Amino acid sequence: MAAIAELPFPKSKKGMQAFLGALNYYNRFIQNMAVYGAVLYQLKDDDFGH
């Protein structure tokens, strides 16, 4: 989680999509990653539009 937390927060919708795509790699290593991912996907929609 520390490596993920140190990543800069994306500033665009495309950047957020790339960030979320990179998180898919960690999905198998982090318990309950779907919970964290759901929050980030909601941020993508709220902050960057559909």
From TrEMBL:
<protein>
    <recommendedName>
        <fullName>Reverse transcriptase/retrotransposon-derived protein RNase H-like domain-containing protein</fullName>
    </recommendedName>
</protein>
<dbReference type="InterPro" id="IPR051320">
    <property type="entry name" value="Viral_Replic_Matur_Polypro"/>
</dbReference>
<dbReference type="InterPro" id="IPR043502">
    <property type="entry name" value="DNA/RNA_pol_sf"/>
</dbReference>
<dbReference type="InterPro" id="IPR043128">
    <property type="entry name" value="Rev_trsase/Diguanyl_cyclase"/>
</dbReference>
